[in-house]
Design brief:
6-stranded mixed β-sheet; single chain; 3-stranded parallel β-sheet; globular; alpha/beta
Length: 372
């Protein structure tokens, strides 16, 4: 059986090493499952304690994807097979462990370089967003397309979408819009743009650096190396930057219903904007409300509080029908015809939305110990 994550260590100077983790589910576009989350978490903790490991390099196998998201299809099959309430412990374990891994990456003391090549969606963005050094290439395509499956932009989306300029984070969450390397740099979801054919030379250069005993010094060292390989001359045009004013206008509403009306009235010949608007219109009305509310409620939350709130939301999505139905329509039957609980954003009751923010347990939130 093929290992779902491959680990190796590259010899470097001063007796140091660079740990390399490779998501190894190429045929599934390196989509995250429970086994991969567990393996990554354990290995990152070992490398963090190993004084000989100076930095970590995280990549995906193959050329198509770094990571196309979490394995939500398997999750929803479990819910369908045994029912939402019986499946809840397994669903909780999956999301809880995934969020613990995402948080670990956010607070990791040593440099983590994510090679964000190819498709990066959902859970893949969760792995990438917290890394100290996030690299995109000419093939990078990122999206948080959860509105099409009745979920919402989790894995810390509350945090990184709220930190995007203006209301671009709200736009990306509501539309699941596909963004390129230039967009990722503009909205703060990536740090460096490096051509993919420089990868091997870059990794060799990292091995040859004069690594320090100081983690802070090594962070600076990695930053300098990556900057030396950046060539912005081949950077594509950023759709988000180019249409920033229009994005600001269409998302400028007193409430979500007003924003939806402005999306419906959008008149443009731009293919990227039209696709984004179409995805919003056909997506789950419940998800639209969740995106709007998570960003509103999450503005002043700490990072641990963000993951605590998202765990509640994710479990409630598992208990409500749109998530399973959205995955069925997009990934299982692939008929592209989901039957959402409500036909329009204006039809979704406030009480229904509020249910998604109520803990489905009587005990304390399992992620209360994050950051402690």
């Amino acid at each position: 059986m093929t290992e779902s994550v491959l680990f190796s260590e590259l010899s470097a100077t001063n007796g140091k090493k660079v740990g390399v983790a490779t998501l190894n589910m190429e045929r599934k576009l390196n989509s995250l499952n429970s086994e991969m989350v567990s393996a990554l978490t354990d290995q990152l903790k070992l490398w963090e304690k190993d004084n000989n490991v100076a930095a970590v390099w995280l990549q995906g196998a193959g050329e198509k994807a770094f990571c196309a998201g979490g394995d939500v299809r398997t999750l929803c099959e479990t819910i369908t097979d045994v029912g939402a309430k019986k499946a809840l412990p397994d669903v909780q374990a999956f999301f809880e462990n995934e969020y613990r891994l995402d948080y670990l990456i956010h607070v990791y003391a040593k440099p983590i370089i994510v090679w964000g090549h190819g498709i990066i969606m959902g859970g893949g963005i969760g792995l990438m967003s917290g890394a100290s050094h996030r690299v995109v290439t000419e093939t990078s395509r990122m999206a948080m397309p959860e509105i099409s499956i009745g979920l919402y932009p989790d894995v810390g989306g509350t945090w990184f979408l709220n930190h995007a300029p203006g209301r671009t984070g709200l736009f990306l969450g509501l539309t699941g819009a596909n963004i390129n390397a230039a967009d990722a740099l503009f909205v703060g979801m990536a740090d460096r743009y490096i051509a993919s054919d420089s990868k091997e030379e870059l990794m060799q250069s990292l091995q040859e650096q004069s690594w320090s005993e100081s983690e802070a010094d090594n962070q600076v060292l990695v930053s300098r190396v990556l900057k030396s390989y950046e060539n912005l001359e081949t950077l594509p045009v950023s759709n988000v930057r180019e249409h920033y004013d229009l994005i600001q206008a269409v998302t400028d509403g007193a409430d979500l219903v007003e924003i939806a009306d402005q999306f419906n009235a959008l008149d443009t010949e731009n293919k990227w904007l039209n696709k984004a608007a179409a995805t919003f219109r056909s997506g789950s009305p419940t998800t639209a409300h969740l995106v709007y509310q998570q960003l509103l409620r999450g503005k002043k939350l700490s990072l641990p509080q963000v993951f605590q709130m998202e765990l509640v939301m994710s479990l409630q999505c598992a208990l409500h029908a749109d998530f399973v139905e959205g995955v069925r329509a997009l990934l299982v039957d692939k008929d592209g015809n989901p039957k959402w609980q409500f036909d329009a954003i204006a039809d979704v009751p406030a009480k229904w939305v509020e249910q998604h923010f109520q803990p489905p347990w009587d005990a304390p939130n399992p992620l209360l110990n994050l950051g402690s």
